[in-house]
Structure prediction request, 216 residues.
Amino acid sequence: MPAFCAQLDAGVNGVALTKWKQETANDILASPLSAGKLDVSNNSQKAWHEIVVRKFTNYRTQVYLKKADSTVAPPPKHRGVPLLHFSSLLTARQLFAKENEGVLHSAAEERHAATGTGTVGSAYQTVLKEKWDALDSDARDEWQTRADKFGGDIHRNQTDFKESMHTALATLCQGGLLGDAELLLFYGWRDLKGDISTGASRLPDLLRATASAHAR
Prediction:
């Protein structure tokens, strides 16, 4: 198929490619290798001509195009980064695990070596659950009090949300990737008094200005 591949590599398609296949099929059937040697008892000369043409067509769809697709480099993988970062909440159990990390890991490794099943990670979760469940209510309350003290500041997160989200969406709009569009984000939560607070972050002007700058 070198000659056929050369036609495909050159970008020949449509009517021109069909004409090439038909003319080449005629040449093949008229060549010394085929002339007078084909069994015409079951297939006529026209049928043999169609078989040769179909051979070219099948090769293009089943071999050539698939091979071309396999050589296309996959898109690069981009490591995602968070658009926003707020102070996080730490549960009592998470704080307990964090401050007893060394003891828990040692116990998990011993458990895994003794049982020979699962992974150290699964053994760690089992050990953590056992040790946490073994605490009485007073001990758990103490860990909860400490977690509340060192936990995230929800009120500060709510205060910073609008500005942080506006900055994040503005960053997303840079480069004109979204074209002439409008981003509108609605949000709502309960404040410290228990009242529902709602708002919206809208970025039409910045996005259009960015798109216009790229259009110049």
